[in-house]
Specification:
mainly alpha; DNA polymerase, domain 1; 13 helices; three-stranded antiparallel beta sheet; hpI Integrase, Chain A
């Protein structure tokens, strides 16, 4: 049994049977590539069906020596477990060597969030004199107003805008669809962008239905969204390390802080498990603790 053959089969399994996005597939394949590199360059050089628990523990020691963080190690172990689950399903192995493999203990990292004032400051920092200014303003308003992932933002389709009903349809992870309410402000900014900027573009054949486009009439890249937000943060002197996902975290946290039902927030975010959504209740408690520590006379 060859590693590369197994990796190729696993990649097809992730794409076709699990229906994962290309970004998720790439992440899983990257995990397996690390494992393959280790076995191809170590004394063990075990084939996939010959790997034992002790070999995998040696792999973890190898990651430790390279100062890979516990969080990254846990992510890699998750990928390896998924890989061996695939080999079991395909009857390529009879025993799973990852069954007793433990991930390193990591604390639950709470995401950074932005206050309403910081969000307003970022959006207001967009230079509307520039050709793409209104597009950027509409994107940020949509990102926060609807709590979107960056991949959902760049893939947002015109035919999925139902402004008369006050909703947009999102195509999320694993092609799961959900309806998300859209604010009046986001509707206003999108319509203004559509009339002032998008309507004057020469749009490429494969991008007619994509809402947010670059100057060449093509879908924006995820990297471009990161760059736009980073430049705006630098412009206003924001010290927090933020990304497009920060707007999503802020959206959810503001809803929870305002008393929104956790099940409703779960639905709007497109979380498969409510356990994922519950992090925002912990975030709320962290905010309460920091407020008490800052302002209480006995703190």
């Amino acid at each position: 049994m060859e590693w590369e053959d197994c990796k190729k089969g696993y990649e097809n399994y992730l794409k076709l049977e699990k229906s994962l996005s290309q970004n998720s597939v790439d992440a899983y394949i990257n995990d397996i590539s690390k494992l393959i590199y280790f076995f191809n360059n170590s004394l063990e050089q075990a084939a996939p069906d010959k790997v034992e628990l002790q070999d995998l523990k040696s792999f973890l020691e190898w990651l430790n020596e390279r100062r890979v963080s516990p969080r990254s190690q846990a992510r890699t172990i998750s990928g390896i477990k998924s890989f061996y689950k695939y080999l079991l399903i395909e009857n390529k192995i009879s025993n799973d060597p990852t069954a007793l493999l433990e991930s390193p203990k990591i604390g639950r990292k709470l995401p950074d969030i932005l206050s309403m004032e910081e969000i307003d400051e970022l959006i207001n920092a967009v230079d509307l004199e520039k050709q793409e200014g209104q597009r950027n303003k509409a994107m940020l308003e949509t990102l926060y107003s609807c709590g979107l992932r960056v991949s959902e933002l760049v893939n947002l389709k015109i035919t999925n805008l139902f402004f008369d009903q006050g909703f947009i349809k999102i195509e999320g992870k694993a092609d799961k669809e959900r309806l998300v309410p859209v604010s009046n402000q986001a509707v206003y900014e999108i319509n203004k962008y559509f009339n002032d900027y998008r309507s004057s573009l020469k749009i490429c054949k494969d991008s007619e239905n994509i809402l947010f486009l670059n100057r060449r009439g093509r879908k924006l890249s995820r990297v471009m969204i990161f760059t736009i937000i980073k430049n705006l943060a630098d412009k206003i002197g924001l010290k927090k390390k933020i990304s497009p996902h920060t707007f999503r975290h802020s959206f959810a946290t503001h809803l929870v802080n305002g008393g929104a039902d956790l099940r409703v927030v779960q639905e709007m975010l497109g979380h498969e498990s409510i356990l994922t959504t519950e992090i925002y209740t912990h975030l709320d408690m962290e905010y309460l603790k920091s407020t008490i520590n800052q302002f209480h006379p006995r703190s």
